[in-house]
Amino acid sequence: MNAAKGLKGVVAVETSISSVDGKNGILLYRGIEISEVMKIASFEKAAYFLWYGKWPDDHELRKLKNELSKHRVLSPEMKKIIDGLPENMDMMSVIRTAVSSEGTVDYNWKPTTGQAVRLTAQVPSIIAYRKRTLEGNAPVSPIPDLSHVENYLYMLYGSLPIKAHADALEAYMILTLEHGMNASTFAARVTASTESDLVSAATSAIGTMKGPLHGGAPSGVIDLLNEISEVNDIEKVLRHKLTRGEKLMGFGHRVYKTHDPRAIALKERLLQTAGEDPWLDLALETERMAVQLLNEFKPGRSLYTNVEFYAAAIMKAIQMEPALFTPTFTASRMVGWSAHVLEQAEDNTIFRPESVYVGPDRRVEEKMN
């Protein structure tokens, strides 16, 4: 019996939420290409679409925005738990612990979309509350009229974000709402398959996202952009790295063997803000030069930017420290995780894969002796 290590190539579920075609560079949200989603969707619209399988009308969108706004306010109990955590606890562990504390009897099986909205609203507030209290700054109360992404930036920094930054971060968060049967989504569905609650499934997913092989921050791209900024010569830096055989961080992807559709969509959104932020402009010009040089040094390899490249540029532009990259990724992916938990509950079968025993057979050894 041959084992598929890591379950690679093994179909575990049937889903109508998203489709990832790495060979052809296609990502679909409920049958619609991500580039088309980006043209018409705000974070709230895209989240509604993934949860309900249809676009919201004006009334439904207002209702969702009101629900997100209402649940942004953390309870005194959750704040007390966050305040009591060790100062040297990383942000992903803080999110995991805070979300886990939400698991009251209100979340007992079966999961609901209302629960998904509540958790999605809370994660940005958890991140912002923890960041500001650790820095010795007073926590910032949410502003009801701000969008989900605008409010996240406002609660982080205590001032209203400029439009270019809010638009760029919203684009990134829409693109990372969902991405097929990745490790954290699988973890959420495995937990949900036992008829556990949504909070438990989300906690499993957060713990999985924390691992650097899954939710690792694109710090290498930040280092590259910093170096280019200091030298002030994009071609010189990139050509030097390629001549030395170094990898250009932010190029190539383990799933997409051609263009990463999320990077293309994000680039198109950033082009609309060209000239409004120097870091975003630098990223756009770096990509142009890098693709040109990669074709020269590695012809036929089809190495293009991945979503982490532009994500790093966005984080740099809004002055977000690397420690918040994966937590911000988590804040968006809560939508995808909860959509999968809701889908799992509709037609549930507990996951129980087989394993291949490769240890010794003591019975054979005893007979031989």
From TrEMBL:
Q: Which residues form the active site?
A: H253, E308
Does Iron-sulfur count among this protein's keywords?
no
Which biological pathway? Answer: Carbohydrate metabolism; tricarboxylic acid cycle
Q: Name one GO cellular component term.
A: cytosol
One Pfam annotation reads: Citrate_synt
Q: Which PROSITE patterns match?
A: CITRATE_SYNTHASE
Catalysed reactions, as listed in the record: oxaloacetate + acetyl-CoA + H2O = citrate + CoA + H(+)
Q: Which domain of life is it from?
A: Bacteria
The record's Gene Ontology biological-process terms are: carbohydrate metabolic process; tricarboxylic acid cycle
Which UniProt keyword terms apply here?
Answer: Transferase
Q: Which GO terms describe its molecular function?
A: citrate synthase activity
Q: Which family does it belong to?
A: Belongs to the citrate synthase family.
Q: Identify the PANTHER family for this entry.
A: CITRATE SYNTHASE, CITRATE SYNTHASE, PEROXISOMAL
- Name this polypeptide is given: Citrate synthase
